[in-house]
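USER:
Try writing one entry.

ASSISTANT:
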Amino acid sequence: MTLINQRTLVDGQILVTQALGNGAGTTVIGNIDLSPQPYAATEEFDLVLTVPALPNNLSGQNIVFQPQHCATSGGSYVNMPYLAAQTLTGVVTTGSAATTYRWKITPDALEFIQILATQTGAGNNSASSVTLALNF
């Protein structure tokens, strides 16, 4: 028998919604503080990024979503080790389909977490918002 360790229940959740940018550039999603969550150890936290369909994310354009963390409020964020960036690639006539990315927070995560969304190309996705959830 194979056991799968995947939680389906969530004790708590913090949601952050952020509009994407117009053209090439970077958008910060989050700045979530992990410290006041008393319900679970950090390694039991999930980051879930929900991205709607983006009709203006056309061919030759990508949006790279990179988890980052920082030790202090207002400090400098760095990429989180062991959590890979995810790339959403545009399609010639339809843009990109809705998708969800999930990262499991590692025990060495620092106190503050954000997702850095770097958009290449000239697509205007400012009318679309992504939602970042911290599940614990």
About this structure: The radius of gyration is 16 Å. Residues 1-7 have pLDDT under 50 and may be disordered.
